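sry for the spam today, last one i promise. struct tokens for design, 104 residues
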């Protein structure tokens, strides 16, 4: 099975979900760490997961034209709860912060 998000392949589901969380919190690199500092995260990450799922149509058939085509979530067997955990993990660890930006 291949694990893909945003036209990038990942070696496993864990790395793929890390990338989804990073992309969501950083808005594809547009949100610098000081912007992310102003955001809040729900206690269980489900609100953020719902926003990502709805905003990126992760639970919709790919292309929206062929109802037979599985959604991204179905293709990768990803649940809302797993996505929430990945988003929470980003929030806890803040991998967007490097030593250079930690004191900004």
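last one done:
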């Amino acid at each position: 099975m291949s694990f893909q998000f945003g036209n990038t392949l990942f070696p496993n589901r864990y790395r793929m979900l890390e990338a989804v969380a990073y992309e969501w919190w950083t808005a594809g690199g547009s949100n610098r760490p000081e912007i992310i500092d102003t955001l809040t995260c729900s206690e269980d990450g489900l609100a953020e997961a719902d926003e990502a799922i709805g905003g990126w149509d992760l639970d919709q058939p790919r292309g929206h034209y062929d109802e037979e085509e599985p959604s991204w979530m179905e293709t990768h067997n990803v649940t809302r709860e797993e996505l929430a955990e990945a988003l929470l993990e980003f929030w806890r660890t803040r991998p967007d912060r490097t030593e250079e930006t930690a004191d900004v």
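The helical segments are 13-26, 33-36, 46-56, 72-76, 80-93. ok im logging off now
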